[in-house]
Amino acid sequence: METELCVLTPDDWELWREVRLRALADAPDAFGSTLAREQAYGEDDWREWLNEPAVVALEDGAAVACGALFANRPGYAAVVAMWVAPDLRGRGLSRRVLDVLVDWAGARGLRVELGVNRLNPVARAAYLAYGFAPTPRCHPLRDGSDKICDVLELDAPARVLARIEQYYDEVPRLEADARDAGPFTLFVRRGTGHPYYARPGLGRTAFEAEDIARVLDLQRTLGVPRALEWVDEVTPGLRAAVIEAGHRPRLHPLLVLGDLSPAPPMQPTASCSVLAADDPRLAEIFGAVSAGFAERDEVAIHEIGARAEAIAAGRLVIVGAFAPDGRAVGGGSTSPRGTVTELAGIAVLPRARRRGTGAALTRALVGAAHDAGCRTVFLSAADDAACRTYERIGFRRAATACVLEPDA
For residue 21, how many C-alpha atoms fall within 13 Å in the half-sphere facing its CB? Predict the structure, then answer.
């Protein structure tokens, strides 16, 4: 049976009321509220609740699990209203609901916390297994109750960075061979196309200057570009080792999408479209992106290569920007993997800039990412000026992407 996870809006208030009242009737000692209290809620009360994130799991159109968040103090969001239908427990539904809520909080830089009844060791064990940690704090289940809830806490932003790190490790493997190179994974592309790089192996935290020299020498021996990429906050010891080895990496803001800001009233002069695998304009878009990065207005047609196959398989999404006369003026891409994707290669021809085209491309890519089921959408900005542009759209600076290209 297929399970659908839905993030609710205030217009879904009747569905939220139905599942919430079922939860309160089934497990009165799991919640700080009561069935009698919420049975008295009116439509406005339910709609107001859904101004905060709430998730429902549906099977055959019926709500079978739920959970919600609310911002309870600066820098934190509280997980509340967690419930799974009794006959469906043990199937991982609560974990899937938590994934959506934690991703939402982490993308906005919020840690998450929850209270779990001391008389419910099964729930406590499940939250600890998910990654929550105990704290010294506790509180009554509700006013006047003698039942006590212990507060557990999770670093949601760090969890989002860990998912991004897994994404970085996964994406190249479709087109490249992965080799162990000391504490690094070296990706060597099969066939033609954009070359890859070396990254820290997942979970590796210790690096020496000699490790840097060895992996760069191996790349030279293999005839591939010498390049390292990493996220500073995930592997904080690597930058010091790179500097000790005599190199200076480039630092780029890494941003994660929080709340997409409203589109400006002034529409861009260019129109943006998601391109199908057989769209004849793909080669022109790739040429426009290349020209934009090269700071030139002349667009040369580029080969599509294996990218059409990746588009058809859903592994790559291309958005093109077109002037009113139909000519390509920019483009960008995203490569969904599960619920995570990176926006990359966003470029606009110099003559088409400062007209909202870059922002429109970014918004179109975000829409395509959401359509593909991605909850974590991130990108690396070229510099602080580009970072400010993305922040106005709704991205939040979350970390620092480091790039070492000694021969560039």
Answer: 14
Provide the whole-model pTM. 0.90
**One-letter identity of residue 331:** G
Cβ neighbours of 177 (radius 10 Å): 12
Number of domains in the chain: 3
Collect all residues with Cβ–Cβ distance below 8 Å to 40 and sequence separation of at least 6. Answer: none
Q: State how far the Cα of 343 lies from the Cα of 254, in Å rounded to an integer.
A: 11
Q: Which of 154, 174, 195 is the last residue of a domain?
A: 154
In a domain, residue 264? The reply is no
Domain contains 29: yes
The 10 Å Cβ neighbour count of residue 280 is 8
Q: Which of 216, 248, 280 is the last residue of a domain?
A: 248
Residues 6+ apart with CB under 8 A from 89: none
Residues 139 and 177 in one domain: no
Task: Give the alpha-carbon dihedral of 140, 143, 147, 152, to 10 degrees.
Answer: -30
Output the tens digit of pLDDT for each of the chain's 408 residues. 688 899 999 999 999 999 999 999 999 999 999 999 999 999 999 999 999 999 999 998 899 999 999 988 899 999 999 999 999 988 999 999 999 999 999 999 999 999 999 999 999 999 999 999 999 999 999 998 999 999 999 999 999 999 999 999 999 998 899 999 999 999 998 877 778 999 999 999 999 999 999 999 999 999 999 999 999 999 999 999 999 999 999 999 999 999 888 877 667 778 999 999 999 999 999 999 999 999 999 998 888 888 899 999 999 999 999 999 999 999 999 999 999 999 999 999 999 988 889 999 999 999 999 999 999 999 999 999 899 999 999 999 999 999 999 987
* Whole-angstrom distance, CA of residue 178 vs CA of residue 87: 43
Whether 207 is in a domain gets the answer yes
Which residue shows structure tokens 């291309």? 318
User: Which helix (H) or strand (E) is 291 found in, with range?
Assistant: helix 282-293
Residues 6+ apart with CB under 8 A from 73: none
Domain encompassing residue 177: 162-248
CATH number at residue 373: 3.40.630.30
**Does residue 125 sit in the same domain as residue 185?**
no
